[in-house]
Amino acid sequence: MTRTVIxxxxxxxxxxxxxxxxxxxxxxxxxxxxxxxxxxxxxxxxDGFTIEGxxxxxxxxxTAAIELCRRLGLEDQLVGxxxxxxxxxxxxxxxxLHRMPEGMMLMAPTMVLPxxxxxxxxxxxxxxxxxxxxxxxxxxxxxxxxxxxVRRRLGNELLNKIAGPLMGGIYAADPERLSLKxxxxxxxxxxxKHGSLLRGMMxxxxxxATHGTKRPPMFMSLRGGLQQLSDALVARLxxxxxxxxxxxxxxxxxxxxxxxxxxxxSSLLADDVVFATPSFVTADLVEQLDxxxxxxxxxxxxxxxxxVSLGFRRSEVAHPLQGAGFIVPPSExxxxxxxxxxxxxxxxxxxxxxxxxxxxxxxxLAEELAEQDEAALTQLAREELQxxxxxxxxxxxxxxxxxxxANPQYDLGHEERVAEIxxxxxxxxxxxxxxxxxxxxxxxxxxxxxxxxxxxxxxRQARGENSCRSDAPSCCIES
Length: 479
Ligand SMILES: Cc1cc2nc3c(=O)[nH]c(=O)nc-3n(C[C@H](O)[C@H](O)[C@H](O)COP(=O)(O)OP(=O)(O)OC[C@H]3O[C@@H](n4cnc5c(N)ncnc54)[C@H](O)[C@@H]3O)c2cc1C
Prior knowledge:
By secondary structure, the protein is α+β, with helices and mostly antiparallel strands. It has three domains: 4-39 and 230-300 and 411-478, 3-Layer(bba) Sandwich (FAD/NAD(P)-binding domain); 103-209, protoporphyrinogen ix oxidase, domain 3 (Orthogonal Bundle), CATH 1.10.3110; 302-408, Protoporphyrinogen oxidase, mitochondrial, domain 2 (Polyamine Oxidase, Chain A, domain 2). It is built from 17 helices and 23 strands. The chain has helices at 11-22, 64-71, 112-117, 123-130, 146-154, 156-170, 180-183, 185-194, 197-211, 227-236, 279-286, 291-298, 342-345, 367-370, 374-389, 414-426, 443-462; strands at 4-7, 28-31, 43-46, 49-52, 58-59, 78-80, 89-93, 96-99, 104-105, 108-109, 219-222, 242-243, 248-254, 257-262, 266-270, 272-275, 302-313, 325-327, 338-340, 354-362, 397-408, 431-433, 476-478. Helix 8 packs across helix 9. It is globular. 48% of the residues are buried. Bound molecules: flavin-adenine dinucleotide (FAD). Flavin-adenine dinucleotide is lined by residues 7-13, 31-34, 39-41, 54-58, 247-248, 276-278, 281, 305, 307, 403, 406-407, 435-436, 441-443, 446.
């Protein structure tokens, strides 16, 4: 089998290494610069609380994460997000929390009465959204921003109060810059097919309801937190294939192979290298090989975010916290973008007599707020929760995580940027990309990107390209 070096031990790199091993390639090395595995996945346990520093769950609609859990024997550890009332999302608007109208599918209402009854959207806003059925299809295939699309089809109010903060929030993005084609293409397809989102939504919603099939929860996690997934991956990989606390510095050609220089002074020779690092890191690593590719990789912007988890005694929080949490539109002038009611969203996240809340700060529209130190972030989160939920109590537990330049931005033109990157890579057979920057930042997307990299390696090998020679020197050259 070919010798493979994987750079980056987040979920993308770990999934790549595990898939390679499952498919019979034992000769790979996974390099991670930090002392711990998992990258943005990090779970923390204290006094009966389970806190997620980064992702807290994955979408079930894309199946790669559930399938990976099954491959790892973690099926019995999967937990679904709570449903019914516990799944409701609220929106902070004009000084109060409004429940998202029932039947709202991200940007478009699928149920008429709850939408009409909601006091979140004004009557002119509701009427404008209703006119959507008469708005003609867009001509051409030009990349359109989330904001442009929602404004054009459903009006400004739906954009500012629901679609912008909710859908932009998922990507920590500015809706005016977020490419709809690269993030929520279903809405574009719906416009094309049905001429109207409202008509398209109604058609989609109906068959599911009539068949009465039980839908899986929209999000899933693991009983002990998502880090159970990265820990299980590490446990399944041979120790000899794993190197933490070791940074990849550069990749260069070495006859018909690649040489990966590492921060401990050693180098690795490989037939294939998978970069499962943020794209700006990958850019630095390939700079010597192809400066144009490096520039293209750097063109993907990243923004900073932060999360603050706060545990309170239940008796000290008057709000019922029945729901998944709330989002805060930027127009409301607050300093947080959202808050998950973690202990309502998932079971076993807090002791019986406590609640756990997780506040989101920063993103494309308020990056500077996420770059404060942990104490300032915690203070900010407490002040905002006091203003919004009336919580004045001192938390029994507080933990802040800063995520500097952690969220790749799927800006307008993203699809073309990624296509250019992939074209450049075509000239460097044996180099592969995985990770959040290209075809989706969610955990299932990242896992899928690792699987795709392994498939590309296998395909190259099957074609006999640049295969490992039997007289080849050892994989590791100590310099
Ligand atoms: C706050 C937050 C909340 C999120 N919530 C969710 C969620 O609920 N659900 C969801 O699906 N997604 C969520 N995401 C997105 C998701 O967590 C990430 O997209 C995903 O974890 C990225 O995984 P990755 O392996 O591609 O990258 P990373 O996790 O960033 O891993 C890359 C690794 O490469 C290492 N590295 C960097 N440079 C080098 C080098 N030179 N040499 C060696 N190693 C290097 C890094 O240390 C890191 O460990 C969230 C993201 C954030 C920031």
